[in-house]
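From the methods appendix. Each design record in this collection lists the tokenized structure first, followed by the designed amino acid sequence. Records were kept in a plain field format so they could be parsed without special tools. The example shown here is representative of the layout used throughout.

RECORD:
FOLD TOKENS (304 positions):
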């Protein structure tokens, strides 16, 4: 075996998402990297404790729904208002107090379908969401997902292996596109998620500051956050001065990157965007990661 062959065999694996649509084979293949990505998603504590998820501590105090009474139900949980309205006994169901769930909020809306290097932001974000699921599986945690920009848009929390496989299939399919605000999806996710959940939010976080704060507030009230910001390199820094044509497949936009004022304004906006996210990541219970299209995702796994 030649020295070159030995060097190639010893080279570390790389994971650089490519293309304008995520491919099912690629997303499922990320399973082998789940354990290595636990630190990236702040799941390293579970790895040290043996990879077991936290047990259910109690029935919880957060109301979920009412269902018809069945023998054996605790009579103290009878929903008297629904019982009176329907004429049939109903029992209140509460979300369990569970400290082990990982819930991903994934942005696949129209602005994410943009890229100048290797892949659209939406493809990179899809890979990150799949890695979050496989990392949860490596820790023995339950996993679920809410996807902004697609229909269907929800993978209920459950055994991680099955849930992340369902998410991969959803992302690789030709979904009907919708553009529901991320804020609305986050509120619904918070309402249906148990306390102590680890939320992984994957987006370019292009919303104005007040809208982003409204998006994250209900999630922060339910558990800890890991914010994964996916940006195109073009958004971080303009390329060499020239005139560039951008398109969404229908309309054309001309960007004069040779204009000093344009370059200065772009730099200020990029700096302000990053500073805003770093400020959010500095809050208790919130961590922030940054990725760009063209990045090797595995190289980011040791991020603090």
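DESIGN:
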């Amino acid at each position: 075996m030649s020295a070159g062959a030995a060097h190639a065999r010893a080279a570390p694996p790389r994971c650089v998402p490519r293309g304008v649509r995520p491919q099912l084979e690629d997303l499922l293949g990320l399973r082998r990297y789940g354990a290595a990505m636990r630190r990236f998603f702040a799941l390293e504590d579970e790895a040290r404790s043996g990879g077991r998820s936290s047990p259910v501590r109690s029935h919880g105090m957060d109301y979920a729904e009412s269902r018809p009474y069945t023998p054996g139900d605790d009579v103290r949980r009878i929903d008297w208002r629904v019982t009176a309205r329907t004429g049939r006994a109903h029992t209140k169901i509460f979300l369990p107090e569970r400290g082990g769930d990982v819930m991903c909020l994934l942005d696949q809306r129209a602005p994410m379908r943009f890229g100048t290097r290797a892949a659209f932001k939406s493809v990179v974000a899809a890979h990150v969401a799949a890695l979050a699921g496989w990392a949860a599986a490596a820790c023995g945690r339950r996993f679920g997902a809410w996807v902004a920009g697609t229909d269907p848009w929800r993978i209920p929390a459950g055994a991680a292996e099955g849930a992340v496989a369902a998410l991969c299939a959803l992302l690789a399919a030709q979904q009907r596109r919708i553009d529901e605000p991320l804020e609305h999806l986050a509120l619904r996710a918070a309402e249906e998620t148990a306390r102590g959940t680890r939320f992984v939010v994957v987006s370019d976080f292009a919303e104005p500051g007040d809208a982003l704060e409204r998006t994250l507030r209900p999630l922060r009230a339910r558990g800890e956050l890991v914010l994964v910001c996916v940006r195109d390199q073009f958004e971080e820094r303009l390329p060499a001065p020239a005139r560039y044509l951008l398109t969404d497949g229908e309309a054309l936009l001309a960007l004069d990157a040779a204009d000093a004022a344009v370059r200065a304004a772009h730099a200020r906006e990029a700096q302000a965007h990053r500073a805003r996210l770093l400020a959010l990541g500095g809050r208790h219970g919130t961590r922030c990661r940054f990725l760009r299209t063209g990045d090797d995702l595995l190289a980011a796994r040791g991020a603090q």
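APPENDIX NOTE: Residues 46-58 have pLDDT under 50 and may be disordered.
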